[in-house]
Structure formats: structure tokens, C-alpha cells
Sequence to fold (307 residues):
Amino acid sequence: MKSSVITFPGSNCDRDMDVALKKFGFKNKMVWHNDAELPKSDLVVLPGGFSYGDYLRCGSMASKTKIMKSVVNFANSGGIVMGICNGFQILVETGLVPGVLLRNKYLEFICKNVFVKIINNNNAFFKNIDIEVLEFHIAHNEGNYFCTNDQLKEIEDNEQIAINYCDKNGNTEEQFNPNGSIKNIAGIFNKQKNVLGMMPHPERMIDPFLSGEDGSLFFSNLINNLK
Amino acid sequence: MKISVIITLKKEVLDPQGKIIQQTLDGMGFNNINEVRQGKYFEINTKENDPHKAKDQVEVMCKKLLANLVIEDYKIIDVQ
Fold:
């Protein structure tokens, strides 16, 4: 399985993602934002970080780069695309997934482990994961997912919510919402479910000595789903 | 030509920065403020000399890049 991680100026989770993908069997290539062509890939990842210093709006500049035209074409032809954190912000700015990510409700940069509940596992990302709640890490200032009421209805009707913030038992009450996101949304799909944007970082949970193993579960399952 | 644009968050979108500014002003003794909304201001200096064309062009810029219309409104406030 071949993967590509796009590096934008200011990306800083691109190498962590490279390590994670390789650890679970992907042949990964790093792709520079100014390249026009995407290498042949089974998976494209937009990593976390602060692309273009978060100027104007997070992800807005990166969404207009040369490589993103190829990524949008890849996604529109059914290719599997995953945006993590700043990658999620880039995805919303391209319009591949609906909504926007606002500043966190209490204006804090949040850096901690969170639990997320899998809401839809009928897709390449979460299919065959046999537990409902995963522990991932978040580190962001703009992760407060927002969309219009019409968009929210469409997202719910099309089962586009991927994961919600919750407690370790899977309760999704407002008190387990770290950043003010509508309906505790931590990640969403496009309509076709081949594009996933999420704030939590699975690549930070791949080593039991350093963090946890739910990221290992996620990546080993992902590569099997793509085979 | 120089075109000036203001971008603000839509009314229904929470503006936590504006809220904190209001609270701080309140703490400084400005107790009569109903609300503060924070926005962005752009000055775009273009080679285009026709004010209508320049304005149209900036409108496209606003829609495509400067504003995110899900949460923001833009207003061209000056063309000179």
C-alpha cells in the first residue's frame, strides 16, 4: 500500500505521520506542497501543523497550493484522503468536507488526550475496528467545529459524522467536549466517505511506552481495509 | 486603485475574542458596551484603473480566499 504525506511550509506532524504509516506497512512518500503531481497513492494524508503560519485563516493558504489541486482531483475520483488537525482545517477550506473550524470556545490552546466515539464505521477508516471508543491526542487552537443548521442537517442525514468527543465509556455529553464543537464533532467525512477530516492525532498514539496504542489499532486496521 | 474591505464574523457565529475584549473594556470602566465584534481589514492596491472592474475583482477575491462565507461576511467600504 502506497501513501503520500503532503508537507506544507509550517507542517510539523508530517514526519510523525511518516513514522506511523511506515510502522504499519505503508510505503510512504513525502510530497512537497509546490509539486503539481501526486505520486501514485492508495492514501493521501494532510498532516497537522501550522501551514503558512495560520495566516488569514487556518488552512486557507495551503488549500490554494498546487498540490491541493491534485489532492482534490484524487479525492473526487474516489481516492482515500485523511486530514489530521491542520489537515482537517485545510480540507474544510478546500470544501472537500463541509463546515469550518473556529477558535476554541474558551480561547485556550488545548493539548491533551481525549476519548472519541466512532459514530460511523461503514467506511475505509473505521470499518472492522471492534471497539467503540478510542483514545487519541489533540493539540489545537482552532478545533471548534461549526457549520450552518442546513449543513448540519445534511451532515446528519448523510451520516457524515465520523467521531465525537466523549468520556472513556463513550458518553458524549457536552462536558466531554473540549473545544465547543457543534454536537461534540471531532471528525467528519465527505458525502462519499472517502475523505476524513479529524482534529485528534492517531499518529501520536502508536507507542505504548510513550503514549498509547489506539493509534496502532487505527493504522493497522486502515492498511488492512485498503488492501 | 486602492480598495478597502472589511471582513466580519456573521451575527450567528460566536466571537470569543470580541467577547473577551468587551469583558476587558468593562473591567476598565467602559460599562455601557452591549457587544464587541472583531473583524479583519484589508487594503488592496491594484493596477486596475477602472473602479467597477477593480471592485468586481476584489469581490471574487473575497469569495475565493479573503472570507470564508460559511462564517464571515465581507463588505467593500472604499474604492479610490
